[in-house]
Amino acid sequence: GAVVSQHPSRVICKSGTSVKIECRSLDFQATTMFWYRQFPKQSLMLMATSNEGSKATYEQGVEKDKFLINHASLTLSTLTVTSAHPEDSSFYICSARKGAGGELFFGEGSRLTVL
Amino acid sequence: RKEVEQDPGPFNVPEGATVAFNCTYSNSASQSFFWYRQDCRKEPKLLMSVYSSGNEDGRFTAQLNRASQYISLLIRDSKLSDSATYLCVVNIGGTYKYIFGTGTRLKVLA
Q: How far is B31 from chain A (nearest CA, A)?
């Protein structure tokens, strides 16, 4: 079946640094990918929709200058958390869909801890 | 009112029990429906898509009721390994928009 891979799975960084998370679709092309964050015991929160070859669409309240998204190819989207602060510590997950209206496939998630 | 609603639970059931979850949606343009399972500190994984005629996969049965705008998931003969959070996901027809329920937490007890 389709696989979406996310890297790194875990990252610890100092406050003020930037962290890049990669999301790859391994056996299909994904023109659209999604980025979410999830706090403990809470539901997934959609942050933005990543569109290949164009700007990402951000959800209300998500700072586009803080969470930079680049979707440079049909198989790769990246999320960069810029100038990370402890409150950015969270579980970040990406997903991609295979075809319109099809199921979403999720990456393994990236657990970010900002010290 | 949330676009997709689920009872958060937790549902605590003994091994071998049958348990059912419902998920209601408000957007009549909803076209595709899915149940995902999410284990603690892990990503969601597709459990099953939900088809108009209903569908079954082993111990799991999914139903769709368009008139009343809800989907359901039935788990028979619950196993300890079924303990997880079950997410209802709805795709709005003709769009890339997927709406997530908050999830229903299931604990199967020995």
A: 8
Q: How far is CA B37 from CA A58, A61, A85, B53, in A?
A: 26, 27, 30, 22
**Chain B residues with CB within 8 Å of chain A CB:** 31-32, 34, 41-46, 49, 87, 89, 91, 93-94, 96, 98, 100-103
- The residue written with tokens 């108009």 in the block is B52
Identify which of B55, B98, B47, B58 has the alpha carbon closest to the alpha carbon of residue A94: B98
Give A3-32 pLDDT, tens digit per residue: 899 999 999 999 999 999 999 999 888 889
Q: State pLDDT tens for residues A63-98.
A: 999 999 999 899 999 999 999 999 999 999 999 987
B100 and A44 in contact by Cβ < 8 A? Answer: yes
CB A43 to CB B45 under 8 A? no
| Bridge partners of residue A111, in order along the sequence | A10, A91
Q: What whole-number percentage of chain B has pLDDT above 70?
A: 100
Sequence letter at residue B38: Q
